[in-house]
Amino acid sequence: MHARLQQLGSLDNSVTFNHSYGHSDADVLHQSLLEANIATEVCLTALDTLSLFTLAFKNQLLADHGHNPLMKKVFDVYLCFLQKHQSETALKNVFTALRSLIYKFPSTFYERRADMCAALCYEILKCCNSKLSSIRTEASQLLYFLMRNNFDYTGKKSFVRTHLQVIISVSQLIADVVGIGGTRFQQSLSIINNCANSDRLIKHTTFSSDVKDLTKRIRTVLMATAQMKEHENDPEMLVDLQYSLAKSYASTPELRKTWLDSMARIHVKNGDLSEAAMCYVHVTALVAEYLTRKAPAVSPALSILGMFRQGCTAFRVITPNIDEEASMMEDVGMQDVHFNEDVLMELLEQCADGLWKAERYELIADIYKLIIPIYEKRRDFERLAHLYDTLHRAYSFWGTYFRVAFFGQVNEDGKELLKLYSDKFERKTEFERSHNIRRFMFEMPFTQTGKRQGGVEEQCKRRTILTAIHCFPYVKKRIPVMYQHHTDLNPIEVAIDEMSKKVAELRQLCSSAEVDMIKLQLKLQGSVSVQVNAGPLAYARAFLDDTNTKRYPDNKVKLLKEVFRQFVEACGQALAVNERLIKEDQLEYQEEMKANYREMTKELSEIMHEQICPLEEKTSVLPNSLHIFNAISGTPTSTLVHGMTSSSSVV
């Protein structure tokens, strides 16, 4: 073979292609075929030589599980055939030779370092985009063989190594190869799927579905990349597309981190600082999860720290959305050497800085709880002093809020959500009531006749509760609705609901540490003033009058009566608070409201056929602690009212 190669290399110039003019078409064709055949024969001779070499020196090539300098040189020669242009005939033989190499030396590709597997995947995928259909078919079948052999090598458990390297290679090809993702490449993906579906030997395993999942991820990456160019001036769509990419890279820490970082930059640019902070949290949790799984290999000291034993779950106190970082697929050959304790510390500090800028001060302490033990172990007192100073300032601030709007077909008017629901018994602070929220409510009025608005005796409303897939805030602003629950309230239930709201609002205003006089007086005026008291009294006349009560269930009538008793009590308490705080120039206004209050209670007594005593300046105010509890819960004093959910109750 050596002699044959020397002969081919020393051919006289007369047999090589001559560019001089004067040759006939037949001569040109002859010269072209001659050079093509010589090139192909050189390739085939080299392949035969490599095949003999791998047989003769198999033991040396298998040293250190196939990761040795000799194997690297042999592999580089094989790879060269794919990197240089070859004839169609030559490439078919190259694919056959590579299949033989993979079969004889599987540990080279499936154990330890992933560099040779990665390089092979990259070159095969380039061939999957070839203009020649025969080459695309051969390349697709070779890639399938690489995955299938990986699956067999693990005892038919998985082909994680090849799966990860294919995804990474596709990402690299997007930037390196023009046209990838077109029809030719899509056809190659279909060939791979067809190979998996027709392979009877793995019919009763997960291999076929795993291959389908891989090709689906590749298509997601390609589609999102193409769409990003179209929507580069639409930040919301751009983030959504990058999110789909980050999600497709859930099993590849480096690439997922890259896209999450990119999303954070877009959020910062657009002033969406809460979402940017969540991106930082997810990146940090991702690295923590990686280090947890790699701790013995990366740094034995890491395992002594609780946060590394917990991995990403250490961040669940900040957001339950963090659980998605636990979906990382493990591959022993991943060499993400830049993920270490120092990188994690930098990311944790970035989290704290992002949360500070987003004014989510309440969460900074949870991040610092993870950092402080490490600085204490290092005895870095300067950094500790800085952290405690930041914590001191963070505890001096109050939380802020964000607005949520609903987009979709449920709310046909596209109106902003009417109410953000929260569990007021479990969420004690204002921050807790605006963080990690995933359920939202809006109401739409309707009547049985088809009109949207009607009299109180015919007015119904539909309450819709939406549950999002993730909690707000998240790494992106638009979160899909997972499911929705509808509840229709009949007219008397609407009355109970509306009156319960008024009771809760008045009680909350009265129990505030600093009473908002403007809001208090507006609520009082809307409750007791003659010119506008048609609202509360209209409900009483429609549902509690003797001529109407028989049309409604007894338990609903009793419940509405109890709400009205509490409404009268709440109005009396509000009048007492207002009288205690007003100045002389409002005394006349106060007396007018008290007179209206007496008239309202008098009419209610007549309608309900019971004596309802107005509570004025002699009203015994509830103890402060109970007032505060009621204000937080938004719940009337009597437990009877718990039977009807109001718009300020638990969702």
From TrEMBL:
GO molecular function ontology, one term from the record: guanyl-nucleotide exchange factor activity
Superkingdom of the source species: Eukaryota
Domain DOCKER per the UniProt entry, residue ranges: 247-613
Pfam families registered for this protein in UniProt: DHR-2_Lobe_A (PF06920), DHR-2_Lobe_B (PF20422), DHR-2_Lobe_C (PF20421)
GO biological process: small GTPase-mediated signal transduction
Entry keyword set: Guanine-nucleotide releasing factor
Family: Belongs to the DOCK family.
PANTHER family: DEDICATOR OF CYTOKINESIS DOCK, DEDICATOR OF CYTOKINESIS PROTEIN 9
Name recorded for this polypeptide: DOCKER domain-containing protein
Organism expressing this protein natively: Balaenoptera musculus (Blue whale)
